[in-house]
Design goal:
Layout: H1 15-40, H2 43-59, H3 61-66, H4 70-93, H5 112-118, H6 122-134, H7 136-147, H8 152-159, H9 163-181
Helix pairs in contact: 1-2, 1-4, 2-4, 6-7, 6-9, 7-9, 8-9
């Protein structure tokens, strides 16, 4: 078979795009991996999803590079790969999910460190879902700050608000999460 023969899978390497993709991926890897770790609950799964998404992004790199929002397209690829990963995991494991004994962290209302320690557990997931339903801006600020590691200025840029509004939403969001996560007190317990 000659070198000029048609390859149905396309070229194996695209030297013109390798450097651009490599720079892009190195620059954004941490910011793409951080929310995956928070959502998947394990570094192994998050890394596997990111590498699968990186391969798909590399295969589509000329299109992604030419777009107005390359990071947005890569995040969409990652979301799709995350869904595919969980679907295949559920098929393989018969819907088994990891469970750990959850100690009582919120004896006196909890702290941010305790909230971060709880991430990945069903109780926090349910509280975040409730917060997202009742106060979506607060939930978005909490996710962007604590799960993606963005500063208040970066969150303000992404959400179209001011840094002061982001700080207020973070404070209110933490307060709401504490109330959602703390055990309900009975009338006689006061």
């Amino acid at each position: 078979m000659s070198d000029d023969a048609f390859d149905p899978e396309g070229p194996v390497a695209q030297p013109a795009h390798d450097d651009a993709f490599d720079r892009f991926f190195r620059k954004h890897k941490e910011s793409l991996l951080r929310p995956l770790i928070a959502r998947t609950r394990t570094v192994y799964d998050a890394d596997e999803i990111l590498m699968t998404a990186a391969l798909k992004a590399y295969q589509r790199w000329p299109y992604i590079e030419a777009s107005a929002d390359p990071i947005g397209l890569v995040r969409k690829i990652i979301r799709d790969c995350r869904v595919d990963h969980f679907r295949s995991q559920a098929r393989r494991a018969g819907r088994e999910f990891l469970t750990d004994d959850l100690p009582t962290y919120l004896a006196d209302g909890g702290t941010v460190d305790e909230l971060l320690e709880l991430r990945g557990y069903d109780q926090l997931d349910a509280a975040m879902a409730t917060l997202a339903h009742t106060a979506p801006v607060q939930a978005a600020c909490i996710r962007l700050h604590y799960l993606e590691g963005l500063t208040t200025t970066e969150i303000a840029d992404r959400t179209g608000s001011t840094p002061a509004a982001v700080r207020a939403n973070l404070s209110k969001g933490r307060h709401h999460l504490r109330s959602l996560l703390s055990p309900a007190t009975e009338e006689g317990d006061r």
